Amino acid sequence: MIEYLHNTPVASIIFIFTLVTSIYALNDPTLYGKFMLHPYSVYRKKNVYTLITSGLIHGSWMHLIFNMFTFYFFAFTLESTIGSVQFGLVYFIGLVLSDIPSVFKHKNDFHYHSLGASGAISSVLFSYILFYPLNTLMIFPLPIPIWAALFGVLYLVYSYYMSKSSRDNINHDAHLFGAIAGVVVTIILVPGIVPHFLSAITGGRG
């Protein structure tokens, strides 16, 4: 753990802090009321801090475990690749921007709440994809590994479709806009990333 803190301090702190706050919230439901994103309030300039704190709690053990596994597999490599400051920007800008569409979409729905780090983790994942598009991922329930870039396309299509039609109480808008934020922020922070991505997926052929 000391090595992780030394080499990838931002990802390590986010990982530990999110685990601690999420586990605490699972055992103390009063924390949900303080930390959950409430678009009705945020749109009216109240509890704006929940744009950040909503990413520190999760609705169930499965929700927490899935997000933290995804974070673990991509965040530490990404921070090693782009540096701690840039990684922190990708994560936290992604977290905030992934929630903004939900604020506007549900601004008049007093009973709507959202929580979880999925938007920020989508931002991290898509930033990672720009650097390593041909790395292979094992995605349940697919029986074979697929390229990260192909997964990214499928993920965007799925998130868009589900955000339009789903009633499964999952904030697919956060997934979709977190992914888009990760791409945009990475392009801004790393100007050469688009040529790198294109070169990687074409095998270096101009």
Could you characterize the architecture of this molecule?
The chain is an all-alpha fold. It has one domain (2-202): Rhomboid-like (Rhomboid-like fold). The protein is 70% helix and 2% strand. Strands 1-2 form a two-stranded antiparallel ribbon.
SSE blueprint and pairings:
Blueprint: H1 2-7, H2 9-27, H3 30-35, H4 39-43, H5 50-53, H6 61-82, H7 84-105, H8 118-131, E1 136-137, E2 146-147, H9 148-165, H10 172-189, H11 193-202
Antiparallel strand pairs: 1-2
Short description:
The protein is mostly helical. The chain is 70% helix and 2% strand.
Supply the number of helical segments. Answer: 11
Number of strands: 2
Q: Estimate the global geometry from the Cα principal axes.
A: globular
Kindly report the spatial arrangement of strands forming the biggest sheet: 1-2
Mean pLDDT equals: 90
CATH class: Mainly Alpha
CATH architecture: Up-down Bundle
Strand content: under 5%
CATH superfamily: Rhomboid-like
How many domains, as an integer?
Answer: 1
Main sheet, how many strands, which sense, barrel? 2 strands, antiparallel
Q: Work out the radius of gyration.
A: 17 Å
Oligomer: single chain
What are the key terms here?
11 helices, single chain, 70% helix, 206 residues, Rhomboid-like fold, globular, mainly alpha
